[in-house]
Amino acid sequence: MSEKDRLDILSLLDAIDKIAKYSSGYKNAEDFYEAERDFDASMMNFVIINWRNGFEAF
Fold first, then answer.
1. By the 8 A CB rule, do 12 and 49 touch?
2. Where would I find the beta strands (DSSP E) of 1-58?
3. Radius of gyration (C-alpha) of the chain in whole angstroms
4. For an engineered disulfide with 38, which of 6, 22, 44, 54 has Cβ 3.0 to 4.6 Å away?
5. pLDDT-flagged residues of the chain (< 50)
């Protein structure tokens, strides 16, 4: 495995951990959505996952 691949995998795992951390503790999706900081941080980590997976424009 190349060093770049290893770093990409570590970035993906970090983003997944952050999504789990930021989205935990909410009773439902609406409460999570209304918690703008946690919701936005989670969405940004989905962007990072997509970017690390080689985003292809439609």
1. yes
2. none
3. 13
4. 22
5. 58
